[in-house]
Write a structure and sequence with these properties.
heterodimer; A: alpha+beta; Ubiquitin-like (UB roll); Fumarate Reductase Iron-sulfur Protein, Chain B, domain 2; five-stranded mixed sheet; 8 helices; B: mainly alpha; two-stranded antiparallel ribbon; 2 strands; binds iron/sulfur cluster; binds FE2/S2 (inorganic) cluster
């Protein structure tokens, strides 16, 4: 396959950056999108050009490192797929593909396609955990959890913290991410003791990081590689209301 | 203390917009139903209008409405301002022209809201503060609002603008009414019933309002 890539190059956080054309041929439809970038990078390095930086780690859709806005779509054109799971057979010979980093104030660009997503870590540190005194592992069936709740908790726990929800949102809102983390623990008895404190602190941190707020457009849900549902945001709002009285 | 923090938070501000939006939805529904008397006849409508104008509760109700409008608009505009500031910059492709994009109604709430506000101001000027005709109703001198409405609803440009404004209101309500459920944490906007409720509510209100000028223009 022959492709015309337009890739965002930015030397550092303060550089203004621009889209640069990279025509490539010999792309196999069996390559993954990231492999295609690897091969382009090999060629660039061989030609003495600086390699394009992009985030990745597991390359199997579980770590949340990969990002990329591909033709305006966070994680590419498919639903429920992370960029690392996208394959070149999804594109046609001769296609032009625009590749950009996540765009949000709270995710400043570090270089080229890499962004600083530490804001998410700080939100988690504000309350996305359960405090336990470590010791022997508790017997697995000591705490009974209704099937329905464990399913909902698992669905919410699928969030990999990639930030596509923020990148897709016209408000750069992080509410899908925060709601997934809040809902995940709110469905479980283990999350109950710190429930109110958690939602208050996480929302406060989210606001402080400069994310926008949800206007219920649902763009996040469409972009999320883990198909986290909008109903989690309803749950987040409900949890905030419940945390009003203490 | 929690209340103060709540109202300062992004979730709390959305909550305010949702609550006031719900109140305003109730108002437009009532306003539309009352105006349906236009289709019944001059006497019925003027009687209803007179009862509304002379009702002692009308002043507190109007104050309440104005407060709701101001809150709804100012908080929504403030959120929108913050949201714009949260966006990233960059000249390239935006999610806003991608395949996974959100629907029109949800993306343009501020635009449809502002247009509705412009309509509201003009609407008040042309009716509430419009020409004062008088008529007699059971021996009492009352305002002949029916005559004014009938006159306005026979002007083609006025009717066209009116219908256009109601389509804008439809878009605003179709998203807004269902989004209220999500924001108040009652149910998800993805919930089928909630979605249908939003569309139905918007269709009933906008459809009702549109039927009135069209009736005068074509059949009366
Ligand atoms: S909610 Fe989805 S899109 Fe957002 S961070 Fe989690 S996995 Fe990524
Ligand atoms: S690289 Fe780990 S999710 Fe894509």
């Amino acid at each position: 396959m022959k492709l015309n890539l337009k890739i965002w190059r930015q030397k550092g956080p303060n550089d203004s950056g621009k889209l640069v054309d990279y025509p490539v041929d010999d792309v196999s439809p069996d390559m993954s999108f990231l492999e295609m970038l690897d091969i382009l990078n090999l060629k660039l390095v061989h030609d003495g050009v600086e390699a394009i930086e992009f985030d990745h780690d597991c390359r199997e859709g579980i770590c949340g490192s990969c990002s990329l806005n591909i033709n305006g779509n966070p994680h590419g054109p498919d639903t429920g797929t992370a960029t690392c799971q996208l394959h070149m057979r999804r594109f046609k010979d001769g296609d032009t593909i625009v590749v950009e980093p996540w765009r949000a104030k709270a995710f400043p660009i570090i270089k080229d396609l890499t962004t600083d997503r530490k804001a998410f870590d700080r939100i988690i540190a504000a309350g996305g955990f359960v405090s336990v005194n470590t010791g022997n592992a508790v017997e697995a069936n000591a705490i009974l959890i209704p099937k329905h709740n464990s399913e909902k908790a698992m669905d919410a726990a699928a969030c990999i913290g990639c930030g596509a929800c923020v990148a897709s949102c016209k408000n750069s809102s992080a509410m899908l991410f925060v709601s997934a983390k809040v809902a995940h623990l709110a469905y479980l008895p283990q999350g109950n003791p710190e429930r109110k404190m958690r939602v208050r602190n996480m929302v406060a941190q989210m606001d402080e990081e400069g994310f926008g707020s949800c206007s219920n457009t649902g763009a996040c849900e469409a972009a999320c590689p883990k198909e986290i549902k909008l109903e989690n945001i309803a749950m987040l709002n409900r949890e905030m209301l419940k945390a009003l009285c203490d | 203390m929690y209340l103060k923090n709540f109202l300062a938070s992004s979730v709390g501000q959305k909550f305010l917009v949702a609550l006031t939006g719900l109140g305003l939805s109730g108002f437009v529904l009532m306003h539309m139903s009352g105006n349906m008397l236009l289709l019944v006849g001059a006497e019925a409508y003027n009687k209803y209008a007179h009862a509304m104008i002379t009702n002692p509760l009308i002043i507190p109700a109007e104050i309440g409405l104005v407060v709701m409008f101001l809150l709804h608009m100012s908080v929504a505009l403030k959120i929108n301002w913050d949201n714009r500031a949260a966006r990233g910059t960059g000249p390239g492709r935006r999610p806003s022209n991608s395949d996974k994009d959100a629907r029109f109604a949800s993306r343009y709430m501020v635009l449809t809201g502002v247009l509705t506000f412009v309509f509201l101001v003009l609407h008040l000027i042309s009716f509430k503060y419009g020409t004062y005709y008088e008529t007699e109703l059971h021996g009492e001198k009352v305002r002949d609002l029916y005559r004014l409405v009938a006159e306005e609803f026979h002007k083609p440009l006025f009717v066209a603008w009116y219908v256009f404004a109601m389509l804008i209101l439809f878009a605003h309500l179709a998203h807004g009414f269902s989004a209220v459920f999500q924001t108040l944490g009652l149910a998800s906007v993805r919930n089928c019933t909630v979605k249908k409720l939003g569309w139905t509510f918007a269709a009933v209100v906008a459809g009702g309002f549109i039927s009135q000028p069209l009736y005068f223009f074509f059949f009366n």
